[in-house]
Amino acid sequence: MKNNIGNEGFTLIEVLIASVILVIGLVALLQLISIAVYGSVAGRDITVADNIAKRLLEDMNNRSYRTAMDNMTSGTVTDGTNTVYVYGSAFTSAAYARQPVTVGPRKYYLNAQYTDNTPSSGLSTVRVYVNWTTTSHPHTVSFTSYFDMS
User: Fold this and answer.
1) What are the distances in angstroms from CA 106 to CA 25, 34, 46, 94?
2) For residue 107, what are the domain limits?
3) For the chain, N or C: smaller number of CB within 10 Å?
């Protein structure tokens, strides 16, 4: 019979090498989780901003152009529950004002600009921008749409 005394288990060097490999893998995994969480939050913010802008454009699309513009010059458009959009009072200029829309912990600012008879006679160009800031980094989502002025 063979006697294998002293050849059982792992050596200290093998355990240390395995520990180092495990720590490197865990650090990489934690960085991946951090990136995934950041991407998820950024995606949520973009989706919220997208929905705010689309809600305004849909509201304008559901009204006649003149009614929507008259409502803009009076200063407000209502989303059914809250008055969240405030615009500039100059009817034919591209002036606009900012009003915060709070969703969760973040404030989004909706800006609307419109220019009559652009790109051609009878059409109006409406540009909608939604801005927000995360940890001192500004972000913007923008849409451009064209409306028949009749």
Assistant:
1) 34, 20, 12, 27
2) 12-148
3) N
